[in-house]
Specification:
This protein is mainly α. The chain has six helices and two strands.
Amino acid sequence: RHLQANPHSESQFFFPVAASDWRDPECDEWVAGDAAQIRLRDQQIAIPSAHDLRELGIVLEEPPRLKVFELCRFLAEVERDLVLATEEERRRKVPEDLVEVLILDGWKHPDVLGGELPSSSEAFRQLALVLASGDASAYRPTEAPNTHWRFWPEGGRL
């Protein structure tokens, strides 16, 4: 009954990468050693070579093996639009009468594991103003974004 009364409250997840045999069957943190490609939405993407990864600054933790988070970094670099949620996916659990106010590709995210509080973040305070007012012009960050994976080298290992 709760979900009938609150149809937008249930979490919903999207998986742009198709399930297949690209993951190591013994440990799902690894890409299978014999995997040649991965299906991302309706496109086949070749598993990157060590050279491809180095070109993008992706350093393998345990070469020559490729971890899933390392593959995800590659996909985020070369197929960003296919990795991100589509407009339909973003709107699926949002009431139709809500207007999309702002889409961000990057922001200065607080290091909460390092003790930074979201309330101390300029970006988060400005985003709160945008949400409260509906005025996207309230978001005027002065700090450079840090949401790219290069800023969080431990990401994927936590």
